[in-house]
Sequence to fold (431 residues):
Amino acid sequence: MVSQIEKVIGRRVWDSRGWPTVEVEIRLASGAMGRALAPAGASTGSAEAVDLRDGGPRFRGKDVTKAVRAVEAEIARDLRGMDATDQAAVDAALVALDGTPNKSRIGGNAIVATSMAVAHAAAASAGVPLWKYLAGGRAVHLPLPEIQIFGGGAHAGRRIDVQDFMVIAVGASNYTEALDWTAEVYHSAGQLMSDAGLLAGVADEGGFWPLFQNNSEALDMLMRAIERAGFRPGEQVAISLDIAASQFGSGGRYRLGLEKRELDSAAMSEMLLDWLRRYPIVAIEDPLAEDDAAGIAAFTQQTKNVAVVGDDFLATNAARIRSAAAAGACNTALIKPNQIGTLTETKAAFDAAVEAHWGTIVSARSGETEDATIVHLAVGWGAPMLKVGSFTRSERMVKWNEGLRIAEALGGKGELPPRKAFPWDKGPWAK
Ligand code: PGA
Ligand code: ZN
Fold:
């Protein structure tokens, strides 16, 4: 069998924040090779798969020698001889080998890198790119990019509460144009920040470091950046936010650091609804904390034509997505493979969202690498949107650029899902 796994190599490499991470290489009998790297979050949800770290003094406890050793020993032992094209069997073996509900024994980082590397090896063995291998003959489109301009929250020393101030080029006619427009907005924002004496480098995902007095000042600056770049806010380029509310709220209390205010769930919700009324915001992620399901449901019910996205709240978990959908909490799932561990479980979460007539956004983490697997997942599975951070730094650009290559392979500039598929164009989330 040419697609039989012969060799599993684990390697400690480095991520975009300069912390260790896990790389896995899979070699098949055919000679085909697949490689993948584990990303890492900073504002992680409590329901996520465990990112296994060594602890101790080395690299502030963040070394990954235990996870790498698990790849080289146990994972290699169990996967050798298996068929790389049987992703479900490989992933089931990884889940069984770990044996814990949250992948804490051999590590979600070891597991996700292995699972993705196996998919790459299988695609290489079939002689096709991963997106094509996953699409299996279905027509595909490029995902609409959601791109960070200002980074806050846990990615910027909590300088402002809101974690991501992003733009979505809702009026762009293709993927290439969406990137072109976002580049203009990003650089306009940088110029405006510089003119105002507010330019202070960039946050973890490459968005500008937010020297603002409060959250709405950042929104005003974003509006000006869109206009200065020559676009009509809302119509051509809209705003999206990741509130990442679990970072500053729990037990129904939300503490806004800069403004020194504490809000209850209803007041927090009202503040966000007020922003939705005042600014052309088309998507809002984790508006309330992961432990505030009732608040998220109440918020979702009060919005219209907006993508309400669950990240920490859903943790790329099919069961959590199904119960959130039943409760009317959110209408869009953020899909991060390392939140759940294997590609099979990630796809199950994706399918649960599609079944609920929700949207999906395939997403990177704040700690990233040169790995562009998620772009292939977004295209191959048919996700309407992709979120990988800002529009600078190569661990981000490697993803946007991979999309351009896929667009070219498809013979164009990257056809996007039909506009009416998105909630802000008053359409339901379509498949
Ligand atoms: P993380 O944040 O990768 O640091 O968890 C990204 C997000 O909240 O979307
Ligand atoms: Zn998030």
